[in-house]
Amino acid sequence: ESGVNYTAGLPVVRTSPAHGTAFELAGKNEASPTSFRNALYLAIDVARSRKLYDEMASDPLLVGNPSSEGRDESPEDLEAQGES
């Protein structure tokens, strides 16, 4: 009655009510909208989560502080710079 199908691994979000199209209930005022509503809410949640993930992964922080030679500076390098 309230189940949802979710198809993972697609570039688009796809959810559907667990009961399918339920053509046999169409037009009889017998179908419960709960499964459809849950499928819709799940699709919204997945879309928002994907957007948030893309935003967080789009601009990662740089690792370390590369020196002019292209390597990360070690704590010893920083201490030596402080002494001079």
How would the global form be characterised? rod-shaped
> Can you give the mean pLDDT?
84
Helix residue percentage: 40-55%
Tell me the strand percentage band: 5-15%
Q: Any idea how many domains? A: 1
What does this protein structure show overall?
The chain is mainly alpha-helical and 84 residues long. It has one domain (4-83). Helices cover 40% and strands 10% of the residues. It has two helices and two strands; from the N terminus they run E-E-H-H. It has helices at residues 34-58, 75-83; strands at 4-7, 14-17. The protein has a two-stranded antiparallel ribbon with strand order 1-2. The longest helix has 25 residues, at 34-58.
Characteristics:
84 residues; mainly alpha; 40% helix; 10% strand; rod-shaped
Describe the SSE topology.
Blueprint: E1 4-7, E2 14-17, H1 34-58, H2 75-83
Antiparallel strand pairs: 1-2
Brief sketch in words of this structure:
The chain is mostly helical and 84 residues long.
